[in-house]
Amino acid sequence: MRRAKPWLIALGVVALLGAGAYLLRVGLGNAQSKPPSSSGQADRTPPVPVVATAARTSDVAVYLAGLGSVTPLNTVAVHTRVDGELTKVLFQEGQRVNAGDLLAEIDPRPFQVQLTQTQGQLARDEALLRNARVDLERYRTLVAEDSAPKQQLDTQVELVRQYEGVVETDRGQIDNVRLQLTYCRITAPLGGRLGLRLVDPGNIVHATDQSGLVVITQLQPIAVVFTIPEDSLPPVLAKLNAGATLPVEAWDREQKQRLASGIVLTVDNQIDPTTGTVRLKAVFPNADGRLFPSQFVNAHLRLDVKRGATVVPTAAIQQSAQGAFVYVVKPDHSATVRLVKVGVTEGDSAAIESGVSPTELVVVDGAERLREGSRVAPTPRRAP
After folding, report:
1. Which of the listed residues 63, 198, 262, 366 has the most CB atoms within 10 Å of its CB?
2. DSSP at 3
3. Helices (H), the chain
4. How far apart are CA 89 and CA 110, in angstroms?
5. Distance between CA atoms of residues 254 and 201, nearest Å
6. Global pTM?
7. pLDDT, tens digit, for every residue of 16-26?
8. Does the CA dihedral 216-72-249-291 come out positive or negative?
9. Dist CA 325 CA 7 (whole Å)
10. 3-class DSSP state for residue 29?
11. Whole-number Cα distances in Å, 97 to 75, 90, 92, 190, 200
12. Positive or negative, the Cα torsion across 208, 213, 217, 220?
């Protein structure tokens, strides 16, 4: 019997070793690719990081919002009341003045001359009156002695009365000229802010001039006229008729900064049929001067305050086909969907009428990555 060659035996051994290594590799690969149990998969799924905050109990104000414009309570164009040369202008444009402050002066010399003339005329007429009274006493004595006719006495009585009327007229003329002299000093009729100067010194001004000297606008207090829908008018009137004071806040155009706080002064007497709105006027102290005439503002009228409401951040409220909802974090750190009924909104907070209880955690950031039952890792929300 022939013996096998050595090289064939070595080749067979190598083939057997290679086949064994291949089978071992395939077996390990299958063992690694085998799916784990469901419990092991759930334990290794990372929770979704979210920002959550607890619902709280708070008082929420009920506001009515409207577009408004700042309107001065009083605006006065300062005119001269006498004709003459404007000799002095004692104010600066844009200056704040008080009622009674001296603004300008008219040349008083023509009126001083008139005053001298009327005073001289009064002195003459008073002398004539004194002489007529002396003659009247003489005639009374003569008539009593039957030395003069009574008709002459009656004539003298009427002459005295005539001179008395002339003297009163002279005194009235003197008062009138003195009043004209007072008008030569032009003073501020009210406190406020001056506008641009309309007449320069040296010009001849008249009481009939249309433009006047300067315009004064009252800034403290100041008013805001704004509109609200006609459907909101009945509760406002009910509050005002009951004697309540309705606070109003004025906010800037972007509604990011509160400018001033005031109260409702009055309601207009008719509704605009073209817009379905009614105008309200609110008055503001404006001590810091942040409200300026014709400035656009957003007016927020506080109609009522809802006490003890459940409040959540508006960022927590999501919308779906079924309505508004929030994600609530349960004690086992899983998220669940809650349909909610949203009430009034104030700033970044919203009152929840149903669906969430106080102290429950609601998700305010990261809700877009959640589903019903998702595991979450909540992080407290930073205070604004």
Report:
1. 262
2. P
3. 6-33, 38-44, 109-144, 150-183, 233-241
4. 19
5. 44
6. 0.66
7. 665 555 544 54
8. negative
9. 80
10. helix
11. 13, 11, 10, 8, 19
12. negative
Residue 286 to residue 317: CA distance in whole angstroms: 37
* CATH number of this structure's domain 48-61+308-380, picked from the four choices 2.40.420.20, 1.50.10.20, 3.30.1490.20, 3.40.50.1000: 2.40.420.20
Q: CATH assignment of 64-72+217-304?
A: 2.40.30.170
Residue 346, classed as helix, strand or coil, is: strand
Q: Enter the tokens of residue 342.
A: 């949203």
Exposed e or buried b for every residue in 57-73, given b needs 16+ CB within 10 A? eeebebbbbbebebbbb
Residue reference for tokens 């802010």: 193
What pLDDT does 29 receive? Answer: 46
The string of pLDDT tens digits covering residues 334-357 is 889 989 888 888 778 888 888 888
Please name the fold of domain 108-183: Helix Hairpins (1.10.287)
